[in-house]
Amino acid sequence: TSALPVYTLEEVTKHCSLDNGVWVTYKGEVYDITAFVAMHPGGDKILLAAGGSLEPYWALYAVHEQDHVFEILSEYKIGVLNTESIKKQESVNTLDPYSAEPTRHPALRINSLKPFNAEPPSSILSDNYITPSVIFFKRNHLPVPRVDPETYRLEIEGLPGGVVSLTLNELKSCFPKHTITATLQCAGNRRSEMNTVKQVKGLNWGIAAISNATWSGALLRDVLLHYGFGPEVAAKAQHVQFEGLDKDVTGTAYGASIPLNKAVSEDGDVLLAYEMNGEDLPPDHGYPVRVVVPGIVGARNVKWLGKIVVSEEESKSHWQQNDYKGFSPGTDWDTVDFKSAPAIQELPIQSAITHPAEGTSVDASDGEVTVKGYAWSGGGREVVRVDVSIDGGKTWHVAKLRTGDKGQQAPPPPPGKAWAWTLWEIDVPLPHRAQELEIVCKAVDSSYNMQPDTVAPIWNLRGVLSNAWHRVKVKVNE
Ligand code: HEM
Ligand code: MTE
Question: Helices marked H in 19-146 — which ranges?
């Protein structure tokens, strides 16, 4: 009973550019979104759907499943599709790029389902020194690619002998297997605290976008040296780029790069990892091969690794160039120049309280409160001290540090190779007649770097590098 014009797919398809107008369809209705293209928060990716249906793209970017998005779309409605056209579109509209996603542990706190981003509840984060893989935080930008280990090939470019193509078996059998324990932390860990100052753009991570695992694989250094890396290459190249096998709708792979020095240094410990916690990498963590760059921000630890390029240049990837960079609190989306800031590599000193949880209570009769948490620093810098206060930072106590599961204290790592986090714990006596506690922690690393006391001075528009003193308020029951 709609009085709106009826269109065929052929008519819609003609409107596939800014010159001819941009039409799209959604659930059998036709929209002329020409005027909206320039206002689209996701940029000109929107043109990929020009002349066709939105469904397959919105299935890829579930951020669109929100009322405010549907409201915007409704403003541009110009007609409906005829029945035959709707039938023709059916198969493409029900395509779900996320249909092959692995099953995930129910404890995970989901930040975004498609792509899958989730962190464990902070209350169980520090229960194990080695985080079980099922609750290890997961940060995917795209659908999980399902890779056949038989046909898998790792390509290496930029070495004197030309392009190398390695099978999984060659990677496993031709190079010594090396195991390290390393913590991965997302640049956006604790972003939600930045949102309390002023809204930032990004997933609303709590304190658990960080986890610790053992990783086994070939040393990237061994592989590069085997295929001819030497002084002639080093004289020119400065970066090692990585490309994932996960691709967006334009066919662009996830990518990142690290400095060449980190990749080839004897002390770099960069792994082409095929095992996590003693088993094959799980699909969410990069099966069959991922890079583990210990001490470096999660974003450079490329999963589902397809290609390595030794290069004079950094990766051209969006995630290397226009994301994962830090800015002044005074920089906003109108003034930001992504070229002006370096890509994040090593992360700053970090710590947070995993117990007790915000808003819970402790009993005055216990006489003390047990506080627990984690601490970690980038670049292999060891955590040398964690200070804890229960009165908002007026008085301080030094926590006991732990670098292994209970009873399995590991020897301290060699200087500059503290890749894994430190768990800490302390029993602090309750002050007389306290009704509320403001528990605070701050860590110090081997370069005496410390955390800033508040988040406002380090606020940045992307909400990265959030490492202020962590504060938790709890009540004291009489
Ligand atoms: C984000 C609207 C089509 C890719 C957004 C947002 C809106 C929006 C309102 C911000 C959502 C939020 O953060 O709450 C629309 C409308 C579309 C359309 C009205 C069609 C008429 C598309 C298409 C693609 C796309 C076809 C991809 C091929 C994206 C991406 C983002 C986004 C990647 C996230 C940007 C970020 O990282 O913040 N879109 N969109 N959009 N859109 Fe669209
Ligand atoms: N590699 C690929 N190929 N695709 C991705 O989306 N995400 C990166 C990195 N490697 C990503 C990737 C980011 S931002 C982080 S924080 C880590 O993977 C997360 O690793 P995890 O999911 O194993 O915890």
Answer: 55-58, 67-74, 83-93, 122-125
